[in-house]
Automatic annotation (TrEMBL):
Top-level division of the source organism's lineage: Bacteria
Identification of the protein by name: Tip attachment protein J domain-containing protein
Amino acid sequence: MILIELTAAIDSDGTEQKFYFATEGYQSGPTDSPPNVAFDNAIADPGYIGQSAFSDGKTEGASSLEVGEIVILNGDGDFDIWATYSFDGRPLRIRRGQGGAYPTDFEDVFAGTVASVTVTLDKVVVSIREKSAIMDVPVLTTTYAGTNVGPVGLEGTSDDLKGQVKPRVYGRVLNIAPRPANSSKRTFQVSDRAVAAIPKVYDRGVELTPGADYATSALMTAASLTPGSATFVTCLAEGLFRLSDDPDGIITADVDEKSTDEEMMVAPILQRMCGDLALTDADLDDQVFAELNADAPYVAGLWLSDQTTFREAFDMVAGSVGAWHGFDTAGVFQCEQLKEPAATPDFDIIEAEVMNGFEHGVADRDGVPVWRVTVRYRKHWETQTTDLAGSVSTERRAALAEEFRSVTAEDETVKHQFRQAGELVVDTYLTSAVDAQAVANRLLALHKVRRDLCEVPLNAEALDQDAMQVMSTGRLTHSRFGLSGGRNLRVLGRRLELGRDSIRLKMWG
């Protein structure tokens, strides 16, 4: 049985009302929530829910969640009034079960919002917006007002910064080129919030001498700096620094958002980004971040100064350690590294349970393994090939000319069997060579062997679906494709056909 909750605003005051539907007759009990409600069995098609850790045939990038339209019968005009209601952006929840107390005895299948409701003579079509749509908005929304008057203000002027977004630092970033929040006071902003340290500032590549940190921008602005001293002072609480002298050329800086490496690792950065996305405790699972932190305890950094969306920012950070990210069907944020299938499976599938439509294919690069992995790391956010002072060392000139440094992991023996074995190049936002090498080694071990990708259709009611979650491991036994002895495969995707009692797994390994 499929049960659906919809919420609508039914008048101009925004008064909300909930509507309850089921694929068969059901009424909640007196102690349920809500109590004593008869669920309307007018559902013609409850749609489908599909979740993938990565896009088709891929083993890297963001997750995707597909949702099919819900169709409700309206032949008698019972829901004509819905044409005057507002469902858009309001909650929608789908549950599944065999009966019992509501909602505790029913499994959460999907939590999201309604995109639109279309009412026709014979049906109502409910279009669904899956939760990850909230990530398609810019991270940065605060802009410079352009209200500076000479040395007064930190909002730029109408001729320089007005309307531009204020930047933000996550983690550790190197050689960023911040904008002058007040040119006449030689004051630059690295982040729209507090940072822990601005350890280095450079003018044309020459390191300046750090001075005092001031509690407020007003105190920093009022401070008397010695001309010609080639120094800078900071207001870390407001993400600012100020120079003692007019710049000779481009000004760059290194910045630490937090005071410890542990706080600037991938998982904590993702947690802070989730907070900036206004996700609540109900949207998050601390265990997810704890496990990622144990798998990838690596320092990373992101500097945003444009209209980068949350989805893009999450891609950059999570992708640095080969992790997927997104929301599960219950609306809880997930982030996990792709790993080899586990030695002990979470569930078993035998051939007799596989329905028509079983497919076998290959993943990534037409199934051809890689023999070398190159991981690029330690990003210079501002590369510099010209306008460097004569005193800048040859070594630093070479470093500043490159956006990334790189490390490699390779195994030439892969080419003994696979003559077309390729190379994988991954851009990361990691800052340490040791961490980047660990990522390269892990990715080589994962991708230097041939991988199969199976599409496995199953009868949903005959199996324990709770075990069949994305990134779980299942043992598949089948007479074809070398699976007769059984093989452990990792679930990269699942699609639940709510009206057909079937589930299709995408299994890799």
